[in-house]
Structures are given as C-alpha cells and as structure tokens.
Sequence to fold (236 residues):
Amino acid sequence: MTAQAKPAARTAQKTLQHRTIAAAVAEDLRQRILDGDFKAGSPLRQDALASEFGVSRIPVREALMQLEAEGLVKIHPHRGAIVSELSTEEVQELFELRALLEPRLLKASARHLTAADYAELNGILQEYSAELRANHIRRWGELNTAFHTLLYRHAGQTRTLAIVTGLLQECDRHTRLQLSLTGGMERAETEHAELLHLCEGGQITAACTLLKRHIEEVGKSLQNFLMDHQRSDAGG
Fold:
C-alpha cells in the first residue's frame, strides 16, 4: 500500500466504524422509542446520549437523522431532536396507504404461497399467540410486520413491496400502541388466522377484502384512541 493510499484507507475505516456505531445507537434508540421508554415530545440530547453510549456526537447525530427519516424523531434547528408526536393525520395517511397497496400485493402473491410459506406463517401466528399471553409488547409489532411481509413475498412487485415494507416499519410504533391500549390483540390474532385460512383455501378475493377491512379498522381504532386522548389532555 502506498503512503497516499494509507490515509484514504484509514478514512474509509473510520467512516465505516462511525456507520456501524450509528446503526447500533439507532437500533437502541428505536427500540426505546417503540417500547415507550422515550415518550412523544421527549428531548434526545446529543451530548447526553453520546456520554451514555460512550461514543462521539457524530454517530449519535447520524443515528438521530436515521430515526428522523423513519418518522420517529423530529430534528429542530434550535430545539434539537425530540421524539415525534403521534398525529391522527399521520395515522390516517399511513393506514390508508396500507389499505390501498397491501390487498394488491396479497392478490398477486397468495396463489404462489407454498407449503413452506404456510408453515412459516402458521409459526408466526403461534409465536404471536405465545407472546400475547406473555404480554411481550415488543414482539407484537415485529411479528405483525413479519406476517404481512411474508404474505406478499411472491407478488413480483418489488417497488410496491419496498414501499409497503417501509409503511409497516413506520406503523410498528402505532401498531404496538393500538394493540396494547385499545384491546386489539385478540382481534388481530383472530383476523390473521382467518386471513391465512382464506388464502390456504384459495379464497383470494375474500382474503383481500378481509385484509383491507382489517387494516382500515386498525387505523380507525388508533385514530379514535388518539382523538380521545387529545380531548382528555385538553380537558385536563
């Protein structure tokens, strides 16, 4: 390696280290936001976080920028980073997009699901039931995303699937809230099982109809909860 190449290699290695650390910091903060450890409106101070993680401010700043791109954090020029508030408008948009796109993916994918796919889907439902009984909130959103993504894997619509995967990830926080605070766990369990039963029976149109209604009702349930919560705060 030439003398000129060594500084370039060291710079590349340092950049990679920053990215790796930033990804780890982002994952930790993401989980804490989703778990409710950091409430909506809570400040996320770079200095304090850098001290807590034992890193410089650079990977912390990169992690916060990633979380902002995911909609979990808002970065204000003078106030710094805060945990995003949940708005009824945002919830409505996210779930309307899901209700529009996901039935299309299911229609294209369902007839191509294999026995191995169904075994995996049933395994997710069994795990969901176990985690539901154990009240492990963190896993509910993850399993919900895994279930929906697997249903659509054979759609052959790469860009639409990428959009929906992003929407599901953005909805994870909302989904956990909806499931835990509106009593939606058992309903989700039942409707997911019925959805799988319809697909296995070749009733694709009925499955798509159920999926659309399922997504719409989850969105409405969460919107109603948020509006009631906002009215309660205003009245208090």
Observations:
- The longest helix spans residues 204-235.
- Strands lie at 43-44, 73-76, 80-83.
